[in-house]
Amino acid sequence: MFPPKRSSLLFVALLMNVVWGFCVAIAADFENEIQPLLTRYGCNSGGCHGKASGQNGFKLSLFGFDSQADYEEIVDRARGRRVNVATPEQSLLLLKSIGAVPHGGGTRFAPTSQAYEVLRQWISDGVPPASPTAPRLLAIRIEPSERSLGSGDQVSLRVMASYSDQQERDVTKHSAFASNLDVVASVSEEGVVTAGKESGEATVMARFMGQVAVFTAILPHGIPLAQIDNFPARNYIDELTIAKWKKLGLTPTPVCDDSTFIRRVTLDANGRLPTAKEVREFLADQNPNKRAEWIDRLLDAPEYASYFALRWGSVLRNSNLAGADQASYAFHNWLKDMLARNRPYDEFVRGIIAASGEWQDAPAINWYWQSRDDQLHQVTADTAQVFLGQRLQCARCHHHPYEKWSQDDYYGLAGFFTRLGRKSFGQPPPYFASPTATTGEKNPRTGKVPDPRYLSGEAAVFSAEEDPRHGLVDWMAKPENPFFAKSLVNRLWGHFFGRGLVHEVDDMRATNPASNPQLLDALAKDFIDHQFDMQHICRVMLNSSVYQLGSEPTEGNQKDRQNFARYYGRRMIAEVFLDSVDQATGTKTKFNGVASSARAVDLPHENFGSHFLDTFDRPRRVTGCECERSSGATLAQVLTLANSDEIESKIGDAQGVITRLLKDQRSFDEIVDELYLGSLSRFPTSDERIKTKYFVDAVENKTEAYQDLLWTLLNSREFMFNH
């Protein structure tokens, strides 16, 4: 039965509209269609037209972060010769892309490609700009997000983009891909991941129009395990690490012995060696809880605050440059006091970020003095890197190449510091909060002082009487903040375990994911639940069985580099190393301007003269990055330990340990035990004792013989490394 005539007409009209919609091409939107092509084929990359100076007079924003400027550059600049609306095929933009005319970047795509046709059609349509009503990109995701692979296996990735009109599009063909570890997993331009021959984990980044997403390729080190035997799980750190080991087929090194433990944890928590007396007592103690009790003792000791004040002073760039000597002492003492009293981390950070006044009343103001240029750009970058784990420096000039951060994000954060004024007197001049914009950066794109905006994207509004910096810390301390707590627990994890769950510890971008995301989340939650108690989170880490593993690799974890199946030994930092040499030799290095009892870790800034500290890479405190400390060895370090006058004089010091032991007429066994306990925190093995006895008996001058023994211990890897 046919429908009524009126309905038939309506049906035909609807059909015509549908067919018409298919027949008429919709003009490409510049931001949604053209920019992705320029990014996909590398036109706006840092090595081509996206670099700061452009290329051969043609300059695009890096990875297309500024669509309006790029549109004007293509359509209006160079007298409009880059596009030819009348004859699109003769447009310089197309001719260079297909290699029809000389092009430094070579041929980017073929005349028969979809990319060519999209660009040609856009030019033919009159090069329309980005439409204000067109849907805008919100985020991208990658499918799958994780996959366990075998060598040679392949997986095709799919990139889905979410837009403001609630629609999703497959943008795989327009996305750029990169792997952070090609030997584990490489990726093609089309998004096909190929597993390599090396086991481990690789992160593949997909980038599309300023948004990034990651895929994790896992190549297990062994056959996945159902359980981990002979490993005592003491807390959630152990449980979550076990889960990862099972997936990767890793088995841990057995838990270390008591000698190794007391040396390791004392160095990590107090920045010093345990004394020979402390080692003897610890080894003799039969209390099954002695490790936990020793950890509590270390965290309550004044050396804990001194050591971590040194570590914080380095990344906060506490220096005495430009006459700020007294202020640097005051800032150092403030850091030490906050740590000794175990003040909550959010209070600690507020005292730095929202510091105001003169250094006598607000010592943390010295943090601002280190950024004493009128732009204060270092403060913005350091706030993001030190307290949020985000490296925003790139976004000051262009979109971050490996993150979602744009110039708007950078200058939104800079907006919290625009009311910061500085008086003209004092050393250093005091800072103060002002109700009007006085100091700070201007956005180069707008030429205006930026309004504050949180990194979450939310705008921040403050009255004339409010200090925006307090609002910034309030936002940081919110439980839902995705950066603040994770940044601190990752930094502490890196300190205690030799490597962060995210490596480097202050580079926590989406394209550099944690080796164990569930563990990082759990640590951050625990930290928040305990009101940002720094000693609590240190105690949890140190009491874990993972921290107490031995450092020797085994067959079951030899290839592990980031999943903590063994303790990762590393060289002592310069200040701790000098103090350890002093302690092992029974001497004391003197520094001008501090108490005679002060250790190297007690020094408030970096400008205390010491050839030893400089040789072993004491940081100059010019950046807020942990990377200022180098872990690599140099020839100068080897020569300093092997034959420098400084080491020679410490070993042979008239008040040193060897002189004292001989003066007390100690026996051979007592002297050897004391030297081993004082330097390596253990008794010598039977073989070491026999060989040492043979050596000492063969040397006529016993003083020189014992000095040679101590010299050998100081030059051993076992002494120089925390292991």
Please give a structural write-up.
This protein is α+β, with helices and mostly antiparallel strands and 723 residues long. It is built from 28 helices and 14 strands. Helix 9 (290-300) packs antiparallel against helix 19, helix 17 crosses helix 19 (534-543) and helix 25 (668-680) packs parallel to helix 27. A hairpin with an 8-residue loop joins strand 11 (420-422) and strand 12 (431-433). Among the domains are: 28-124, no CATH class; 137-219, Immunoglobulin-like, CATH 2.60.40; 304-404 and 417-476, no CATH class; 574-615 and 633-722, no CATH class. The strands form five sheets. Strands 2-10-9-6 form a four-stranded mixed sheet. It has a three-stranded antiparallel sheet with strand order 1-4-5, with no helix packed on it. Strands 3-8-7 form a three-stranded antiparallel sheet, with no helix packed on it. Helix content is 41%, strand content 8%. It starts with a helix and ends with a strand.
